[in-house]
Amino acid sequence: MIAEIISVGTELLLGNIVNTNAQYISKQLADLGIEVHFQTTVGDNPQRIRSVLDIAYSRADLCILTGGLGPTKDDITREMIIAYFNKKPVVDEVSVKMMGKRLNEITDETLRQSLLKCAVVPSESIIMHNHNGLSPGSIMEDQGRRCILLPGVPKEMKPMFEEYVIPYLRKLSDQVLLSVDIKLLDFEHASVEAVGEAPVAARLGSLLDHVNPTVATYIKDDGNLIRVTAKAKDEESAMKMIEPVVEKCIEAIGKQYVQSVKKEEKAWNM
Question: pLDDT digit string (tens) for 68-82?
Answer without folding.
Answer: 999 888 899 999 999
